[in-house]
Amino acid sequence: MLGEFMQIPQTSQAAQVTVTETASRTLPLSPGQVAQAVVVSAGKAGENVDIQLAGKIVTIQAGVDLQRGQTIELQRSDSGDKAALKLISVAAVPPIPTDLRPGQTLLAEVVKLLPQQSILLALQQTGKLSVPLELDISRLSSSFKPGQQLLVQILSNSPLSVALQTPNQTSSETMVSQQRRLMPMVLAQPPQLQNVINALPELKNMVPVQNAVSQLWQNIRELQTVQQPANLQQAIQQSGVFLERQLLQPNPSLTGDFKANLLKLAAALEGQIRQTANGQINAQNLPPEIRTALINLLNQPAALQQLPSHITNALLAGGQTPAQLLTTLLAGQGSVGGTVTTNQPMSSANTPVQQIAQNAQFQAGVTELARLQVLLREVETALARVQMNQLNMVREADSPTQQQVWLMDLPLRDKQQLQWMQLQFQQGGKQNQQDEEQWQVTLNLETQNLGKLRASIGLQSSVVSVALTAEDPIAVALLEENIDLLREKLAALDLQVQQLSCHCAPVKWLTPLTQTANSDALLDISV
Hints:
It holds the Pfam family Flg_hook. This is Flagellar hook-length control protein FliK. This protein is an alpha+beta fold. It has 4 domains: 5-91, CATH 2.40.50; 105-165; 176-394, no CATH class; 428-504, Transcription Regulator spoIIAA (2-Layer Sandwich), CATH 3.30.750. It is 32% helix and 26% strand. The strands form 3 sheets. The protein has a 7-stranded mixed beta sheet with strand order 13-14-15-16-17-18-19, with helices on both faces. Strand 4 and strand 5 form a beta hairpin. The two termini are 38 Å apart.
């Protein structure tokens, strides 16, 4: 106990406790249950007071004055369909815990942001109720929010002095956080990099970008070559999902790695965007701080992708990308007479021909920036897809109760077109200790002539089963005509064919997004 309890007469005004409508919906007590709570914000009789009850913050109105740190005893006593609490007893205000010792570290939760740059913490102690603790954070540069978990290290207790730090996330929490960050960039289909490849002849004046695109394209394998097992294995190794493992090796050779080349291309595009924004767009009629802020925003392409979707959609519906809108502002479209202001100030002697030339120069800069932004968006989407695949594989391996799954997207060259092959390997369990491991392999391929294809392959020991799926009925008929050839190829590998089938159905591209039972990306909103 934190102090002596004072019994409250049940017939007095003090016994009446009103629960706010919002709190009553999630009241953490069953009817008739008695529990202790800690007052976390003081208030006079009849005023709103926050209490911590069964791990939740509940706002109530009591008929007595309550002070921060007091422990109260409540009983749920509903009246009809309306939740209600009865105040049974109130303890005296406890002093600061005397059992805190220097060097001790306790878990605490931020309950409330207080005026005068202070925060209210709920200090957790083993086997005891949480203790409210008000701290002055005026000398700290960190920001805090209600519900945030902190570690409180006791430096001294006379006077009380503490140090705050954020608890280290578990590997699972880190993975979920990174997945949530990448989720807006990941599409259900493989990333479309064809625009990046097609832009190669138009990048003559952008040597770093041109070199990065050339290196990316030249290191993507031809579609026909992956029919050989050794080439397919090398394509898997260079798909990007094993980049970080290769970095740990001495003197790694990364020129052929897909993710490494994407990172180089993204850096080259960002550098070209900065050069274009600073060199061709510089409004003279804007205040310097506004002009600088807008240019800095253009220099951070990723920031433009973080705009709310409804704003981006509205801009696109009007024919403008966020980059085009900013460049329009920087161009000084609001100046007198609609004259466009570029990085060279126009004198009053400028002829209409000169003004037209300057307008054309600006429009060329806007077009170039917009094109670079589109290319960078495609590259960032491809990177996000690779990283999401990597995180999913690490997360699966970190959980021994789940089956191991490897998912990777292999870019392939088909003449001047970029094609994708998707491979998923899944290791199954054993029914008996003496059984061989079961493997399930899914291969997705999108071709120009046959459309989308899927092969689902099951393998245990030397027994194999294959199910082929195609979206085009003509492709299904062609596969059925040649299915005996597949049977012969498998038999030549000393495999016993258990089942071969082919059917027509939609082929969905496998997604790296996973469904989790507990996700704080979902909100339960009551109206």
